[in-house]
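Chapter summary example: a protein plus adenosine-5'-triphosphate.
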Amino acid sequence: MQKIVVLNTKGGSGKTTLTTNLVSSLVCSGTKPALIDLDPQGSSTRWLANRPASVPAIAGTEGYTQSSQVTKTWLLRTPEDCDLAVIDTPAALSRADLVSATRGADAILIPVMPSDIDIHAAMKCISDLLLVAKIRRPDRKIGIVANRVRTNTRVYAKLQKFLSSLDIPLIATLRDSQNYTRAFEFGLGIHEMPYSQVKKDIEAWEDITAWLQELREHARRHPAAIHLLRS
Ligand SMILES: Nc1ncnc2c1ncn2[C@@H]1O[C@H](COP(=O)(O)OP(=O)(O)OP(=O)(O)O)[C@@H](O)[C@H]1O
Ligand SMILES: [Mg+2]
C-alpha cells in the first residue's frame, strides 16, 4: 500500500487541512484512500465522522494510544481494500515518532505557512527528516506545500528562496481561503464543494496531484532503490 505522510512539527501549519483535502480529492478521482490519524487531537477523525452520507465514505484509523504515543500497529489495522494511506501527524512529534511515521513512506508532504517563524520551524523539520529519519534527497519524496499564501508578499519570496537553497521542491501554493474552513466544517474537501466557488483552489491542487503522479512514475523507474530503502 502506498503511504503518504503529511508532516510538520510546527503546529497549525495546515497538516489536517492538507490531509482531509487530499483524501477527498483522491476519493473523487476514484482511488480508495484510508485516512490514518496519528494526532491525539483527532481533528481528521472528527472530519471523517462529519462526512455527509451524500459523499463517498473514507476509511479511517486512529493510530495513537491514550498515552499519545504513535502506535506501531496502525498500518496493520488499515483496511486491506484501500489503495493508499494518507497519514495526518501531530505537531509535537518526538524524533522516534518522526522516524516511525515516515518509515517506508512513498511521499512526505510538508505544509508551510510563509511567515518568518514558520519558515524557521520548517527548516528544522526538514533537517530532522534528512538527518534523523534518513530520508534521501535523491528519492525526491519530500514536497513542500506553501499554505495560506497571499502571493507576492515578501515572506513568500523568502520561502521560495529558502526552498531553492535546500533543493527541496515547492510543489504547490495554496491560497488563504475560507473555502478550506467551510469545507472542513461540513466534513468535505474543496473538491466536493460547488465548483464555481472553489475553482481557483482546485487549480492549485492539480499541482499536488501531478507531483504525486510524477513520484509514482519515478518509483516505478527506480524500483531497486525503493526496495533497498524499505529492506
Ligand atoms: N489554506 C488555508 N486557508 C484558510 N485557512 C486555512 C488554510 N489552511 C489551514 N487553515 C486553517 O488554519 C487552521 C490550522 O490548520 P490545520 O488544523 O490544518 O493545521 P495543523 O497543522 O493540522 O494543526 P495542528 O498542528 O494543531 O494539528 C485551521 O483553522 C484551518 O481551517
Ligand atoms: Mg492537525
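Key point: The radius of gyration is 17 Å.
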